[in-house]
Amino acid sequence: MNLNEQQSSLQYMWERDYIYAVNLTVKGFNIDLSKISTIFTSIDLSNNNFHGEIPSVIGKLSSLRGLNLSHNSLTGHIPTSMGNMTSLEWLDLSSNRLMGKIPNELTDLTFLAFLNLSHNQLTGPIPQGKQFSTFENVSYEGNLALCGFPLSKACNNDGRKQSSPSVDSETNISFGWKVVLMGYGCGLIFGVLVGYVAFRNGDPKWFITLFRVKYHRRARRRSRN
């Protein structure tokens, strides 16, 4: 009798657990689930109009396997407590207004196979090691102030984005040419003014004499060399 009651109760609960259906975005793919089990531990709150910061209490969801908060208006930093969600296999926080650095605590998510932090306002170096070594550029695109692997932008020792050496060399070359052109321009203007004054006064002898002296000095230097 007791056994039958337990079996009946379990059967009732089992059937009741499958009366819901939902559409999930898992690892970038839309999946329709017509029956949901209580052991399916994923949360999809994407494409809503959520504002504010992600609460740090979310780190207590240590059994969660998937979390999608993309395409909202979330602000603030990524909570460091998310490093406690050690069962997480996929995480999508893309298309929000999250800022600050990516917490190094996320490297503790050793089961994380999919990560999308694109199109936010994140800054600083990307954490390295463990699962983060497997993610590609697409996981971080749209965050112009991020640097480090796998992006082509290197970071300085203090974590700031380092400018490209080619850009620096081009800047120096451009500056050098500007100085040269300014020197030629000033010399040309000075020469024209001196010649104009000399010939206008009708006595260019001193100008010609000065020119001859300089010419002979240069000729002597060349003959010595």
Automatic annotation (TrEMBL):
- The UniProt transmembrane annotation reads 175-199
Q: What is its main location?
A: membrane
Topology relative to the lipid bilayer, per the entry, is:
Single-pass type I membrane protein
InterPro entries from the entry? Leu-rich_rpt (IPR001611), LRR_dom_sf (IPR032675)
Keyword Isomerase set for record: no
Q: Which PROSITE patterns match?
A: LRR
Which cell locations does it reside in?
Cell membrane
* Protein's UniProt name: Receptor-like protein 12
Organism lineage: Eukaryota, Viridiplantae, Streptophyta, Embryophyta, Tracheophyta
